[in-house]
Amino acid sequence: MAPAPSLVAALGFVLGISGTALAQQRVAVPDARQLLIAAIDAPDGTARGILSGQLADAITERFKATTPIHIDVSTERRYAQDGCRRLKVSFWQDGVLLPGAPAPRRQTIDFGIDYCRDGMPPKSLKEAP
């Protein structure tokens, strides 16, 4: 059963995030490509997921992390070429214990990528009007 809209709004207000962000669910994906395409196609230009599969399990186990590996994708720029965007991709995980670190903490990797629905880079970086 989904929480009442007023409860979602109140919780969002307390946490400082919108009800839409609270309601957005993360999709389990074996690699980030599915989320890149989802962000390109999304009206708000974003997609969120959790890395799944053997690689995700091995990374989580190796660093004794306390959460799954999260992936957040957002559109930074729309290119004139149909279906092509500049995307910001963030991988993050809580409770990561790096060798020699005194305590576990959140680790984040952010990068940008020029990407099209067909998996190729855009032919031109000319922005959409």
| Secondary-structure element series | HHEHEHEEE
How many structural domains does the protein architecture include?
A: 1
What is the tally of beta strands? Answer: 5
Q: Main beta sheet: strand number and arrangement?
A: 5 strands, mixed
The fraction of residues in strands falls at: 25-35%
TL;DR of this structure?
It contains four helices and five strands; from the N terminus they run ααβαβαβββ. It is an alpha+beta fold and 129 residues long. The N terminus is likely disordered.
Task: Describe the 3D structure.
This protein is α+β, with helices and mostly antiparallel strands. It has one domain. Helix content is 26%, strand content 33%. It has 4 helices and 5 strands. It has a 5-stranded mixed sheet with strand order 1-2-3-4-5. The longest helix has 11 residues, at 5-15. The radius of gyration is 17 Å and the shape is elongated. The model is unreliable at 1-23 (pLDDT under 50).
Summarize the helices and strands and which ones pair or pack.
Blueprint: H1 5-15, H2 19-23, E1 27-29, H3 33-41, E2 46-51, H4 54-62, E3 70-78, E4 84-96, E5 105-116
Parallel strand pairs: 1-2
Antiparallel strand pairs: 2-3, 3-4, 4-5
